[in-house]
Each structure stands twice: as C-alpha cells, then as structure tokens.
C-alpha cells in the first residue's frame, strides 16, 4: 500500500491512538490438552505483547467447554484488560466451541478481522483457510479476538492484524 502522504485522500484518522501507551491484555488458551509448559501459542502471544510494550494482566488455560470459556471471558472482561485474546477452539471439530461461547456476548462484531485473517491465511495454507472461524468484536470498551490454536495462525493474527491496529482501536472505543 502507498504511504499515507501518497494516498489520493489521506486518512485523517490514521494516526489517532499513536500516543496511547502500554495497553493491558488478557490471554486465554482454549484446549483440552495444553498445559502452561506446552502452551506455545499462548506463551508466544504473551511474550510478543510484552515485546511491543504492552502488559499481560490475565492469563488462563481452559478446556474446550462452553461454560469454562464463558467464565474465562467474564473474568478477563472484569479485569483491567483492554484486549482479550483467545487462542484455540475456533476450528470446525466437534470440540471447537470458542466461537459459540463468545459470539453471543459480543456487542459489535468486527467481520473485517475474520475476513482479513482468512485472506492472509490463504497465502500460506490455501483453501484450508476457509475452515477458520477466527472472529473479533467488542464488549463495552474492550476488544475480543478469537484466534486459531496453531502457532503460525497466532503469529499471523497478532503481527499482521492486532498489533498494527490495537492503539487506534483503543482510541476509537474510548473517544466520546
């Protein structure tokens, strides 16, 4: 994409939120098998957020069960976290229920997140990208992201979609 100065109609909102400092995050891993020692995706998210200057204020590993996921969501929303990242349970197997657990709680869905995630995934995994049910949305003034459980998918979502926009998202959700 051309730099903003070269765009025919510069985006007057492009820099809103750049002065937002460190943001607090919650990271929830949904898995029947992962432990703190084997949770590579959750650990990578936490480390990458901290490298980017943010803080992780809540972490949890929960089984692929609707009630456990909803409980973790409510705990994360009750924390100081602005962004809540779920990893796992967004596929199509019978045990993948993160979307069913979280989607009803979202007040606004951000369909562009899932659309862009699948588009970017297509470059790497081709038609299998359509099997992802990655989602994002808003609850109050907090952002919620539902990511696949694979480390490559987590990296893609965090690096290409979440980190580049999270401060602007915070700005938009907190302006009057």
UniProtKB/TrEMBL annotation:
<dbReference type="Pfam" id="PF00994">
    <property type="entry name" value="MoCF_biosynth"/>
</dbReference>
<protein>
    <recommendedName>
        <fullName>Molybdenum cofactor biosynthesis protein B</fullName>
    </recommendedName>
</protein>
<comment type="pathway">
    <text>Cofactor biosynthesis; molybdopterin biosynthesis.</text>
</comment>
<dbReference type="InterPro" id="IPR001453">
    <property type="entry name" value="MoaB/Mog_dom"/>
</dbReference>
<dbReference type="InterPro" id="IPR036425">
    <property type="entry name" value="MoaB/Mog-like_dom_sf"/>
</dbReference>
<dbReference type="GO" id="GO:0006777">
    <property type="term" value="P:Mo-molybdopterin cofactor biosynthetic process"/>
</dbReference>
<comment type="function">
    <text>May be involved in the biosynthesis of molybdopterin.</text>
</comment>
<feature type="domain" description="MoaB/Mog">
    <location>
        <begin position="26"/>
        <end position="169"/>
    </location>
</feature>
<dbReference type="InterPro" id="IPR012245">
    <property type="entry name" value="MoaB"/>
</dbReference>
<comment type="similarity">
    <text>Belongs to the MoaB/Mog family.</text>
</comment>
<dbReference type="GO" id="GO:0005829">
    <property type="term" value="C:cytosol"/>
</dbReference>
<keyword id="KW-0501">Molybdenum cofactor biosynthesis</keyword>
């Amino acid at each position: 994409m051309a730099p903003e100065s070269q765009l025919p109609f510069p985006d007057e909102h492009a820099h809103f939120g750049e002065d937002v400092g460190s943001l607090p995050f919650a990271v929830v891993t949904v898995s029947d098998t992962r432990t703190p020692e084997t949770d590579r995706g959750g650990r990578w998210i936490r480390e990458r957020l901290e490298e980017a200057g943010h803080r992780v204020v809540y972490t949890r590993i929960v089984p692929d069960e609707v009630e456990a996921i909803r409980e973790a969501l409510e705990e994360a929303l009750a924390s100081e976290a602005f962004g809540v990242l779920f990893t796992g349970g967004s596929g199509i197997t019978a045990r993948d229920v993160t979307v069913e657990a979280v989607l009803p709680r979202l007040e606004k869905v951000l369909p562009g997140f899932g659309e862009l995630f699948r588009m970017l995934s297509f470059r790497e995994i081709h038609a299998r990208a359509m099997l992802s049910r990655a989602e994002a949305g808003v609850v109050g003034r907090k952002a919620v992201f539902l990511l696949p459980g694979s480390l490559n998918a987590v990296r893609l979502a965090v690096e290409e979609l979440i980190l580049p926009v999270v401060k602007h998202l915070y700005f938009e959700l907190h302006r009057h």
